[in-house]
Amino acid sequence: MNKPLTCRETTYLVIGARDQPLDRAQQDALAAHLQTCRYCRTANAQFTTLFAQLDTLLARGVQP
Ligand SMILES: [Zn+2]
Fold it and tell me: H/E/C letters for each residue in the chain?
């Protein structure tokens, strides 16, 4: 039984997942926290948008 994540830990997982895929336990803990915490749901959505924008910017940067 995993202990519930704090909001800070959840944020780290969301950010960390960009560089390294989460393992099963981390995915489950993250999903469980997002179900119960609307703050982290909002933050997660904003990070997703931000990362997509970053990818667009970076992709544009490497174009000749
Ligand atoms: Zn939270």
Answer: CCCCCCHHHHHHHHHHHHHCCCCHHHHHHHHHHHHHCHHHHHHHHHHHHHHHHHHHHHHHHCCC
Between the CA of 59 and the centroid of ligand 1 the distance, in Å, is 31
Q: pLDDT of 14-28, one tens digit each? A: 999 988 999 999 999
Separation of 17 CA from ligand 1 center, angstroms? 16
Distance 40 CA to ligand 1 centre (A): 4
Q: How far is it, in rounded angstroms, from Cα 8 to Cα 58? A: 27
pTM exceeds 0.70, yes or no: yes
Q: How far apart are CA 32 and CA 8, in angstroms?
A: 14
Q: Where are the domains of the chain?
A: 7-61
